[in-house]
From TrEMBL:
Biological process, per Gene Ontology: actin filament bundle assembly; actin filament network formation
Biased composition (Low complexity): 643-660, 683-692
GO cellular component terms, semicolon-separated: actin filament; actin filament bundle; cytoplasm
Protein name per Swiss-Prot or TrEMBL: OLC1v1024822C1
Amino acid sequence: MSGYAGVVVSDPWLQSQFTQVELRGLKSNFKFLASKNKSGKVTLGDIPREWATMKPFSGVLAEDAIRTILTESNSELSQEIEFESFLRAYLNLQARATTKMGGSKKVLKTNASFLKAATTTLRHTISESEKYSYVSHINSFLGEDRFLKEFLPIDPATNALFDLVKGGVLLCKLINVAVPGTIDERAINTKKVLNPWERNENHTLCLNSAKAIGCTVVNIGTQDLVEARIQLLADLNLRKTPQLVELVEDSKDVEELMGLPPEKLLLKWMNFHLKKAGYKKAVTNFSSDLKDGEAYAHLLNALAPEHGTTSTLEAKDPTERANLIIEQAEKLNCKRYVSSKDIVEGSPNLNLAFVAQIFQNRNGLSVDSKKLSFAEMMTDDAQTSREERCFRLWINSLGIDTYVNNVFEDVRSGWVILEVLDKVSPGSVIWKQATKPPIKMPFRKVENCNQVIRIGKELNFSLVNIAGDDIVQGNKKLILAFLWQLMRFTMLQLLKNLRSFSQGKEITDADILNWANNKVKQAGRKSRMESFKDKSLSNGKFFLELLSAVEPRVVNWSLVTKGEKDEDKKLNATYIISVARKLGCSIFLLPEDIMEVNQKMILTLTASIMYWSLQKKTSDPETNSGTPEAEKSTPNEEKSTLNEENSAVNEENNTPNEENSAPDEEKNTPDPSEVDPAEAEGEPAASSPSSSTQQTTDVENEDPPIEENTNTDKE
């Protein structure tokens, strides 16, 4: 691809915090400051006077206050900085200004690396201890990787980690370590020298895949261990470890156990063994309660008496005791990710990782056949489990305040669904009539869920015989039905908001089907799908041809199989998902959904590709090199597909409330300060990284404005 003239930022997370209009405004400001210096460079000391008069700092942060905040991160105001450090400084000051005005935006707590080190897709800032742990994790699990072994091991004392992640390959490999098979590695760009577009594709693939395994990538914070955390906590559920049922005495408590987040489940497991070992205190966190090391010592003695020793508890010095604990854990094959200093200082992230490692290597739970059979009865069938997974990941990708661990348990209070509704239909929720968990009075949950049903009806969902109490009672079938319609509504709204295509008209399933068939036909291919449950789709060829039609260079046809055998179908399906994510589609289906032609998931896939293609055309009309002639059609030509071939669509695909899907929508960044208002005018385009991760390069002269987020404050 060529012709990109937008402002490019190498860190995708940093890019996602700004619109192109904002980036252009800040880039101009950066160049202006540089032009005032003989060196042609910008220093930290140049910023305070200039920004004290800019929105959003004017009248909120004085010049001296800005200077003080900047010196918290780096005492040398004479230090020259690059543009990305300039952007990070802006974000930090913006957060301070918002907080001072009574807002809730989090201040970026950071060390010197805030301005000195290149950041990564994984995190915005990290402590040295966590950096050391990440490096140890990478060296341990990827040291023998065919592509990465020439770059490993990484020296944690240097910034080699930051240099290595720039290409995106390492991050993609880490995701596959966490959840094997998530990314088809054939889709990763692995040349030794990658151009900016190829690097961006890798990061886009990484971000969309991270969402698909449950990582929070909206406002990535220091509380996330990202892929390493997902990997370490992967077995902390009844489906993977049914022995966890031993933690409850009464079978009635199993449902409550299933609803616990992994961190709480880990604490419950730890306290279960500590109580059996005679330890009197309860551990309630992974920080202060573990500082003295006593809980660790009792836990390890209980789990591995063959390695137990009294010297650990007899040690008077906390650091000495912590060293003995680490040595004892290593005998259980726990890798050294945590140092004695991390234990003594109570690092919550690293202690969580350490306890999770101990659990993985020696959980100490029995295999009581009666309890195990009961736990297995509690698990869902494969289809229900896959749908629950899809909706859970979709909800978490929206960036709402609540993290969902189990859809069926977490939505029963109604609060989570209200958060989602407020995200996808701003202003629809009356927060004064809602109650935030924890909720003691059952009728408050019913009130929340009744409001959910009311809003659903206002959005024209099909909710016959569904009441708020059905959600409170955890009726899985009805919960899935509601969430399906909510997910589908979101995608159809996104497509509708691409006005160059829809001209504001409602989009139907038939429109999506017709668009896909016409796109493949215009590319000179003969494949066709009759409906979203067309069994011929199981071999994956149609979707590979569709992906190739919207971006010809993205499919490597030498990797595509005939799709006649099940193993060949799975190879194609896995490749389809990775290629779509690499383009920027935010999708949560599994290869099995394509192989079995799951109607709902097939629609989500098609709609996501359609949204990406149309959004790309809206934001990037002049960069069609390598794109087929069909892709260069005018909006009116593209729109004509709305009126074609409706007779060929099955009736269920015309029904607005049945079995359709939509990717997610993410909170948009407010408009920039110092920018000509004329730049921000135009039709709203509901582009969002959650629904289709936006490429981090844009066209200078064609940047679609972001639709304003009108979410009401929660009371």
